[in-house]
Specification:
Helix 1 links the parallel strand 1 and strand 2. It is built from 10 helices and 6 strands. Helix 2 packs parallel to helix 3, helix 7 packs across helix 9 and helix 8 packs across helix 9. It is α/β, with parallel strands linked by helices.
């Protein structure tokens, strides 16, 4: 008989929390704590040192990504702690944040709809508890089709120059700010335009398009 997995569960919706507790108990998970806020999750996980944390992403007190941020905090404290986060919607940036915690092992990002597929959901929890990584198929599709960062090819200096262009500065002003020659700035600007795929035409229009690309890439 496999060892019992000790679980701390965090879900602010009372009925769903009770349903998850009953479901997990039915499949021999030991729910050592079931809480309704991110702060209670932090306390419970530190106190009970569970094998697995299952948490909603959006939790009180902030009602935004408090559950996720708490899970990442716990993973920083205990890299071996398995964590599954549940979300109402596909939000690929949350999956990326979770995968960046620890070494990316023992983590799961699942949509809440998957809970209804009981057998599969339980197997996914067991897989994460065993050190595996489980990402919801819808999230995987979103990650695979996520638009490429248009600024990814720019060097640090080129990003800096583009940021100053976005402030409305001329090449001469940028040169003074960075303590380089205007010719050096012109070269950086040319590289930026090439890497962003902005072919030579009206230079003013290209600068506007480059600024739009910069602004769209900001978090």
């Amino acid at each position: 008989m496999p060892p019992v997995t000790r679980v701390v569960l965090a879900e602010d919706e009372i009925l769903l929390r009770a349903g998850l507790v009953a479901l997990l108990a039915r499949f021999d998970f030991d729910v050592v704590a079931a809480v309704g806020t991110a702060s209670d999750l932090l306390d419970a996980a530190r106190h009970h040192t569970p094998d697995l944390v299952v948490t909603d992403i959006r939790m009180p007190p902030g009602g935004r990504d408090d559950g996720l941020r708490t899970a990442v905090t716990l993973r920083a404290e205990r890299p071996d702690l398995a964590v599954v986060v549940l979300s109402q919607h596909v939000q690929s940036e949350y999956a990326a944040a979770l995968l960046d915690s620890g070494d990316g092992r023992g983590v799961g990002y699942l949509l809440k709809d998957r809970v209804a597929e009981v057998a599969e959901f339980v197997e996914q929890l067991r897989a994460v508890a065993a050190g595996g990584t489980v990402i919801d198929p819808d999230v995987v599709r979103r990650l695979l089709h996520r638009p490429r960062d248009p600024l990814a090819a720019l060097s640090t200096r080129e990003r800096e120059v583009l940021g100053l262009i976005a402030e409305g500065r001329s090449n001469a002003s940028i040169a003074g700010r960075l303590h380089v020659t205007e010719a050096a700035v012109g070269k950086h600007v040319g590289n930026i335009m090439t890497k962003l795929g902005l072919l030579p035409s009206d230079d003013t229009n290209r600068r506007v398009l480059a600024v739009l690309a910069y602004l769209r890439a900001q978090p």
